[in-house]
């Protein structure tokens, strides 16, 4: 009988041990990582669905725009020497075969003035940014200079045309015409010729009417101009094909992201306010890595493009995903608060009660994502936070039987959720504020845990 009493006392002492409780709480935290993992997958799945819906909207409205042009395209005859075998004598002989090649000449100067009116386009519960852009371009072409290896009689001046390349042919909303000197040229799409001449399939090509054969004989420099109205989405980019390329862009969008191979002039990046932005680029041929003329085929120059993307700042899914990354911290610190209360007050809290509190904390994220899909992230965060903090505070009162502990839990959780919300909103100072906040939390934990007697545990 005495042995049984000793075993019972040892078992009770083991259950009351703070060390055992700490390991139990740690195990529960690891268990709660499972629902957190599934919640993160849910957010990613919803974000993917939103991205698919936005891509569908953009596809119907008009895609991302990259514009390259105008470019003079002149065919010429090139004789290629081939080796053939006579079927009768089996002797080899050389034969020259005439083949039509193309030369491409880029403009001397290119000035582009763009105004993009951005609007929000929605479908169901999702929104994206699209725009209507007005592009006005002008510049100069100089006399095309062929290689000395190409005889003048092989140049087909009467078949020369002007071409413009774009990634958003569908979005063009006007009949594109180009004023070249005294001539007015109309453009038509040319898909087959683009593929046959090895031009990048990234672009769709517009080709003009035939140029007047004597056009370049009459002028050393020929001015040109054209206007293009485009419906597009995501971004507007240009390729600096001019020997000097000047681009001015204006938009009512408040969150531009300047990207590509060239950034705008430093003074233009400061022209961003609540009314939109203005940007200015001035690029010379010495700033890029291609020449002003190409023979044989025109390479894909999209890697040299520059421009702006009309980004949507952190949406509700990005913010929700970022908040779940702090889920482990929220659960751990909340359990730590309860552990300190338990250690100081000598009130026993069952592991099942810890588990219920942890599940309530994970429910915050499902509430957040479901509400913020229909309302703003701020409103979703407030509703989810108030609901979870109130639930856990009332549950604490029923478990610990004291309002002062319930009030402590309410204040602790409110402070934690406020701290996480501030970090999510910050971008440049998130690490700084997070580090300071965690240091303050650690200091508070060390202060309140200083009276815990660990000697018998």
Automatic annotation (TrEMBL):
Transmembrane regions listed in the UniProt entry: 20-39, 326-345, 352-371, 377-395, 407-424, 430-448
Keywords of this entry: Membrane, Transmembrane, Transmembrane helix
Pfam families reported for this sequence: CreD
Cellular component GO terms, alphabetical: plasma membrane
Entry superkingdom: Bacteria
Cross-referenced NCBIfam families: PRK11715.1-1
Protein name: Inner membrane protein
The organism of origin for this protein: Imtechella halotolerans K1
């Amino acid at each position: 009988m005495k042995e049984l009493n000793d075993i019972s006392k040892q078992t009770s002492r083991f259950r009351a041990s703070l060390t055992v409780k700490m390991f139990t709480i740690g195990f529960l935290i690891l268990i709660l990582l499972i629902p957190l993992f599934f919640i993160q997958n849910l957010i990613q799945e919803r974000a993917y669905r939103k991205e698919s819906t936005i891509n569908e909207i953009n596809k119907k409205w008009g895609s991302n725009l990259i514009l390259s042009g105008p470019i003079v395209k002149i065919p010429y005859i090139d004789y290629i020497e081939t080796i053939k075998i006579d079927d009768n004598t089996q002797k080899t002989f050389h034969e020259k075969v005439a083949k039509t090649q193309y030369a491409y000449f880029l403009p001397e100067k290119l000035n582009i003035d763009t105004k993009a009116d951005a609007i929000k386009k929605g479908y169901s519960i999702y929104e994206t940014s699209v725009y209507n852009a007005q592009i006005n371009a002008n510049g100069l072409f100089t006399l095309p200079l062929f290689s000395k290896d190409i005889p003048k009689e092989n140049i087909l001046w009467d078949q020369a045309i002007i071409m413009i390349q774009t990634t958003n042919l569908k979005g063009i909303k006007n009949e594109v015409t180009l004023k070249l000197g005294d001539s007015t040229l109309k453009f038509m799409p040319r898909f087959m010729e683009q593929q046959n001449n090895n031009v990048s399939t990234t672009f769709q090509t517009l080709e003009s009417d035939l140029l007047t054969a004597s056009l370049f004989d009459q002028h050393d420099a020929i001015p040109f101009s054209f206007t293009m109205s485009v419906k597009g989405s995501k971004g507007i980019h240009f390729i600096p094909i001019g020997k000097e390329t000047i681009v001015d862009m204006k938009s009512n969008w408040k969150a531009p992201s300047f990207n590509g191979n060239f950034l705008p002039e430093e003074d233009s990046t400061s022209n961003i306010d609540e009314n939109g932005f203005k940007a200015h680029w001035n690029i010379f041929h010495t700033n890029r890595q291609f020449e002003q003329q190409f023979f044989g085929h025109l390479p894909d120059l999209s890697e040299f493009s520059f421009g702006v993307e009309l980004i949507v700042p952190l949406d509700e899914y990005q913010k929700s995903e970022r908040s779940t990354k702090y889920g482990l911290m929220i659960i751990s610190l909340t359990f730590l608060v309860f552990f300190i209360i338990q250690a100081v007050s000598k009130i026993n809290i069952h592991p099942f009660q810890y588990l219920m509190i942890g599940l309530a904390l994970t429910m915050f994220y499902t509430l957040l994502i479901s509400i913020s899909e229909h309302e703003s992230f701020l409103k979703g965060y407030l509703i989810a936070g108030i609901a979870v903090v109130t639930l856990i505070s009332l549950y604490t009162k029923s478990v610990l039987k004291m309002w002062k502990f319930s009030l402590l839990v309410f204040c602790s959780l409110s402070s934690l959720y406020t701290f996480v919300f501030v970090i999510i909103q910050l971008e440049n100072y998130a690490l700084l504020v997070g580090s300071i906040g965690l240091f303050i939390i650690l200091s508070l934990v060390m202060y309140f845990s200083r009276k815990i007697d660990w000697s018998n545990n």
